[in-house]
Amino acid sequence: MKNSPSEKSTIALCIAIAQCDIAWESPEENFAKIKLYTQQAKAKGAELVVFPEAILTGFSMHLPNIAIANNSPYIEKLQQLAITENIAIALTLFIKESNPTNSSAKPNEKYYNRIFFFTPEGKQYTQDKRHLFRPAGETKWITPANKRNIFSYRGFNILMVACYDLRFPVWCRNRNNEYDLLIDMANWPIARNEVWRTLVRARAMENLAYVCGVNRVGTDSDGLSYKGSSAIVDAKGRTMAEVDDETEGIALATIEKAPLDSLRNKFPVWMDADGFELDPEATYPIL
After folding, report:
1. How far is CA 280 from CA 130, 131, 145, in A?
2. SS3 203
3. pTM of the predicted model over 0.85
4. CA quadruple 3, 6, 7, 9: dihedral positive or negative?
5. How many Å from the N-terminal Cα to the C-terminal Cα in the chain?
6. CA-to-CA distance for 231 and 244, rounded, in angstroms?
7. CA-CA distance, 131 to 250, in Å (whole number)?
8. Residue 129 catalytic?
9. CA distance 215 to 246
10. What percent of the chain has pLDDT over 90?
C-alpha cells in the first residue's frame, strides 16, 4: 500500500561521537582505535561516526614525517572501513601535496589539515581547515582553506570545520540555511575547555543548525591535556548526546530534519541576518 501524499518520510541521521585519546605519531595504533569505535558505533545503530581532529597522528607539527599523501594506503583503508561496516566516517588527516619544480631540488610540498567524510557508498567529501592555530605553529606549516564545501548526505546539508575554526563565526555562518549540520573535530586543550563548550552551543543557536563537536581526551607529547566535553546539540543549544569528561567512549543521537525546519519557519531569525559576502580566497593573515 502506497503512502498518501500527506505522509512524509522522516529524514533522520543517527550520529555517534567517538571521544578518545590519540597515540602520538602512531598511525597504526590510532587506526586500530578508529576501527574499534567505528564497529562499536555501527553495532549501536549509528549511520555516521565522528572522530577528534588529527586522529591518525595527534596534533603534531612534525609534518614532513607524519603527513600522508592523497594516495596513502590509510585513506584507502578508511574508505574501505566505511564501506565494509556500512557507516560514514568523519575525521581530519594531515595531508601533503607535492608541487614539482623545474630544478633537480626536492619538490615543493604543501601541507593541509584536511577533513574527510567517507561514505559507505564509496564517496569522499573533503574540507580544508581555514583558521590555523598560531600558538602551536600551525600557521608555519599548513595551507589554509580557500573555499567552503557544503555537501548533502542522507537529506542533510553539512559543513565541516576543524577545531580553531569554531572561534570564527563568519566562517561558520549559515546564510539562508545553507547547512543543517555543522561538524567540528577538535584538539581543544583543557585550559580553554569552557570556551569550547560555549562555542559549540553558540554556533548551534546563532545558525539554527545541529552542531556535532568532538574533542579528544588524554595528554599529548607537548604536555597538553584534554577534557573532551564532546557533544551533539540541537539548534536551541540543548544537549542531545555527550560523552563524560576525561573519558573515552561513544555517545549517539539522532537528528531529524522536520523539527529543524519547523523551528526555522516559526523563528526565522535567518531572514534578518546581516548581509555579507564571504571571501575565502582573500589572503590569509599569516604574519
Report:
1. 8, 11, 7
2. helix
3. yes
4. positive
5. 65
6. 10
7. 27
8. yes
9. 10
10. 87
Residue 206 designated active-site = no
| The one catalytic residue among 33, 47, 163, 212 | 163
Other Cβ atoms less than 10 A from the Cβ of 118: the count is 22
- The CA distances from residue 81 to 71, 86, 87, 223, in Å, are 16, 8, 8, 32
Which tens digit of pLDDT belongs to each residue from 23-67? 999 999 999 999 999 999 999 999 999 999 999 999 999 999 999
What pLDDT score was predicted for residue 281?
Answer: 77
Contacts of residue 167, defined as CB under 8 A and 6 or more positions apart, other chains included, come to 131, 195, 199
| Catalytic residue from among 53, 85, 138, 242 | 53
Are the beta carbons of 74 and 68 closer than 8 angstroms? yes
What does 205-227 look like in DSSP terms, one character per residue?
A: HHHTSEEEEEE-EEE-TTS-EEE
- In whole numbers, what is the pLDDT of the chain averaged over residues? 93
Residue 176 and residue 66: Cα distance in Å, rounded?
39
Q: For residue 2, give Cα distances in angstroms to 10, 12, 66, 258.
A: 15, 21, 54, 21
Task: Tell me the per-residue pLDDT of 90-132, one tens digit each, with 9 for 90 and over.
Answer: 999 999 998 765 555 555 899 999 999 999 999 999 999 999 9
Does position 6 have pLDDT exceeding 80, yes or no?
A: no
Q: How far apart are CA 85 and CA 116, in angstroms?
A: 17
Contact between 118 and 89 under an 8 Å Cβ cutoff? The reply is: yes
Grid coordinates standing for 2? 502506497
How many residues in the chain?
287
The conformation of residue 132, written as its DSSP 8-state character, comes to -
pLDDT band at 287; cut points 50, 70, 90: very low
Of 129, 138, 227, 242, the catalytic one is 129
| Residue 163 designated active-site | yes
Contact call for residues 90 and 116 (beta carbons, < 8 A): yes
